[in-house]
């Protein structure tokens, strides 16, 4: 071989090898989100996850590609779960138990990291919290005992409440366990408990209107995806019927709700990036324990309290992480 031809061959290989290496380094992440694409809350959670990835060296478009699917209904979840599995991502980030269920119906091998899931064991997504055992792991939202804390705070901010309606989606299995936990402690607070379904807007309106016909009522509002979808309606109805309400997500209070006590969801999305990083580096979901929240926050909306005629105790204000005036 002539020297010039040899140099040309080596030079061509030198330009090809880095391109091949870069192609091999490009990893793929799917995201299945229980929000509409225009939902600012959903966008803020995606931004937190992206920031967490960047801090770990993963840049969308450089060494990883992120495919997004925004699913607000059952049909969307099933269709988009199948789409994401079909593109064979290295790992999928899933929000809520319903999306995890849809993904596991589509595949029991593609790794899944979940966030904002209430009862991953009861839902069947993992075998146990310590050793998930399958293709999914992640970050639970809260334990059922949180229901007692919500009732305690509701009575503290609105002492006259003697009747409480828990907003529930009958299709979410974890709702039954949460309701039972609240029901257990309700007598100690002198509260009569009932539930209002959230299958659609008309059910919510009629249920809350019927509940509000009697005095001294209040609401507890957990956040399965169906509740998130109707959050503006729930805030409006609570104000219209003058019902003190405690919510399990901060965005209810920033939008006009009375009080919330909940895990820091943004922190959970940042932490989820850490699990995605570990899976991309070879670890298995089956061996990564499901983690509980590490940060909780309480928000109080004083404007809403004033509109409801409530005097918020100074001791409660002092414990709040944020007060909206």
Description:
By secondary structure, this protein is of the alpha/beta class. The chain has 2 domains: 3-142 and 265-295, 3-Layer(aba) Sandwich (Rossmann fold), CATH 3.40.50; 146-263 and 297-324, 3-Layer(aba) Sandwich (Rossmann fold), CATH 3.40.50. 45% of the residues lie in helices and 20% in strands. It is built from 13 helices and 12 strands. It has helices at residues 3-25, 40-55, 74-86, 96-106, 146-157, 174-185, 201-211, 225-229, 231-240, 250-254, 265-280, 302-307, 314-319; strands at residues 27-33, 64-70, 91-95, 112-117, 136-140, 163-168, 192-197, 217-221, 245-247, 259-263, 296-301, 322-324. The strands form 2 sheets. It has a 7-stranded mixed sheet, with helices on both faces. Strand 9, helix 10 (250-254) and strand 10 (259-263) form a beta-alpha-beta unit. The longest helix is centred in the first third of the chain and has 23 residues, at 3-25. It is elongated and about 60 Å long. The N and C termini lie far apart (81 Å). 42% of the residues are buried. Mean pLDDT is 89; it is low at 1-23.
């Amino acid at each position: 071989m002539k020297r010039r031809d040899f140099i040309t061959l080596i030079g061509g290989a030198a330009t090809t090898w880095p391109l091949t290496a870069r192609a091999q380094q490009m990893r793929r992440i799917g995201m299945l989100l229980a929000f509409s694409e225009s939902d600012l809350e959903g966008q803020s959670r995606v931004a937190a996850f992206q920031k967490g990835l960047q801090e770990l060296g993963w840049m969308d478009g450089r060494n990883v590609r992120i495919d997004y699917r925004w699913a607000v209904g059952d049909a969307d979840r099933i269709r988009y779960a199948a789409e994401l599995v079909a593109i064979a991502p290295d790992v999928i980030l899933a929000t809520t138990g319903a999306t995890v269920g849809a993904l596991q119906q589509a595949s029991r091998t593609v790794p899944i990291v979940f966030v904002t899931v209430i009862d991953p064991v009861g839902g069947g997504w993992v075998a146990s919290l310590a050793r998930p055992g399958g293709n999914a792991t992640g970050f639970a939202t809260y334990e059922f005992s949180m229901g007692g804390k919500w009732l305690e705070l509701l009575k503290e901010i609105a002492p006259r409440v003697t009747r409480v309606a828990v907003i529930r989606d009958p299709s979410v299995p974890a709702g039954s366990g949460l309701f039972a936990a609240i029901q257990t402690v309700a007598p100690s607070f002198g509260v009569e408990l009932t539930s209002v379904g959230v299958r659609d807007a008309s059910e919510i309106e009629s249920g809350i209107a019927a509940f509000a016909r009697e005095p001294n009522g209040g609401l507890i509002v957990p956040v399965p995806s169906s509740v998130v979808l109707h959050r503006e309606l729930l805030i409006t109805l609570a104000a219209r019927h003058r019902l003190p309400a405690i919510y399990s997500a901060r965005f209810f209070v920033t939008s006009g709700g009375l009080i919330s006590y909940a895990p820091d969801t943004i922190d959970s999305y940042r932490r989820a990036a850490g699990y995605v990083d570990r899976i991309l580096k070879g670890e298995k979901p089956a061996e990564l324990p499901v983690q509980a929240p590490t940060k909780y926050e309480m928000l109080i909306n004083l404007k809403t309290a004033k509109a409801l005629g409530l005097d918020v105790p100074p001791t409660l204000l002092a414990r709040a992480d944020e007060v909206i005036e």
